[in-house]
């Protein structure tokens, strides 16, 4: 006598998910720093291309601020400090 029971076992696989608390590095406009200074700083500190840095500089000029980089607080804090050391107002939000 063949009972022929077929059993399928369902197995749940747990994946490790890294929760990232993304922050924004924001640069603010001022009446002191030149376009070239801001562009050069963004290229050096944020590893922007010249074109990216120019676009950010125009946004900063016309809108008063621009998110120039996103990432973890740990990643952005040294960049914020380096930008501020160049006399440019930047904050991590």
TrEMBL record:
Chain ranges of the Adaptor protein ClpS core domain: 25-85
Gene3D superfamilies xref list: 3.30.1390.10
UniProt protein name: ATP-dependent Clp protease adaptor ClpS
Top-level taxonomic group: Bacteria
Alphabetized UniProt keyword annotations: Hydrolase, Protease
InterPro entries, A to Z: ClpS_core, Ribosomal_bL12_C/ClpS-like
Any GO molecular function: peptidase activity
Pfam family, one: ClpS
Lineage: Bacteria, Pseudomonadati, Bacteroidota, Cytophagia, Cytophagales
GO biological process: protein catabolic process; proteolysis
Species of provenance: Fulvivirga lutea
